[in-house]
Amino acid sequence: MAGTSLGSRLYRQIKRNPGLIPMIGFIGLGMGSAALYLLRLALRSPDVCWDRKNNPEPWNRLSPNDQYKFLAVSTDYKKLKKDRPDF
User: Fold this and answer.
1) Nearest by Cα to 65 from 44, 85, 82
2) Cα–Cα distance, 11 to 4 (Å, whole number)
3) What DSSP letter does each residue of 47-71 carry, written as one string?
4) Does the predicted TM-score (pTM) go above 0.70?
5) Can you spell out the DSSP letters for 3-16?
6) Can you tell me where the transmembrane regions are (predicted)?
7) pLDDT (tens digit, 9 = 90+) per residue, 16-62?
8) What separation in angstroms does the CA of 17 have from each of 12, 26, 27, 28, 41?
9) How far apart are CA 80 and CA 19, in angstroms?
10) Residue 65 and residue 57: Cα distance in Å, rounded?
11) Which residues, 6+ apart, have CB-to-CB distance to 37 below 8 Å?
């Protein structure tokens, strides 16, 4: 047992207890969804600044029509007007 790899031990446990398959599937799905959401936050959020030299304040370059929230329930971003000054 000491020389076996993690994958072979997991395979043996799944073979002995087939009820683990849905649990492992849902855990994998949750981990994958969390990783994709973190990647989306890192790449699309105006709060994250990857290039400080060319774009030091990315939140100032957003137009009022840009939807950066994950889910907008009642806001139609295409109809919004600009209500803030340019800096």
Assistant:
1) 82
2) 11
3) T--S-TTT-S-GGGG--TT---SS-
4) no
5) TS-HHHHHHHHHHH
6) 20-43
7) 999 989 999 999 999 999 999 999 888 877 667 777 777 777 666 76
8) 9, 16, 16, 18, 37
9) 51
10) 18
11) none
Q: Is the predicted pLDDT of residue 87 greater than 80, yes or no?
A: no
Type of residue found at 42: A
Name the residue type at position 53: K
Q: Which tokens hold the place of 16?
A: 């002995």
* Angstrom distance (rounded) from CA 52 to CA 73: 32
Contact predicate 77/65, CB 8 Å: yes
| 81, pLDDT greater than 60 | yes
Residues counted in the chain: 87
- Closest residue by Cα to residue 58 from 70, 71, 42: 42
**What is the residue type of 16?**
R
